[in-house]
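re: that chain from earlier
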Amino acid sequence: MKYMPATKVSERIADLIERHDGGNREIAALRLGIEPDDLSGLLSGDWARFTLDALAKLVRGYSVPVKTLLWTDPGVAPGIERGRECQ
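^ sequence. v structure.
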């Protein structure tokens, strides 16, 4: 398994927020049921600030497979449209 930098996961999460909530983190946190601090943790690029509960809510709320966020292929992440990749 390849190492996935937290910064890349945070970029993919930011892209989902942009596409689903117009980039508005407050609206995203409210809609997904994630505490704002926990959402900030997911966007921090720091694994130590990620919570599994917040990640699970984000995956369920946006109906994306977790591999969409954690895919290590330097090409396209599964579930992210061509031209919208976060690499």
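The CA atoms of residues 23 and 72 lie 24 Å apart.
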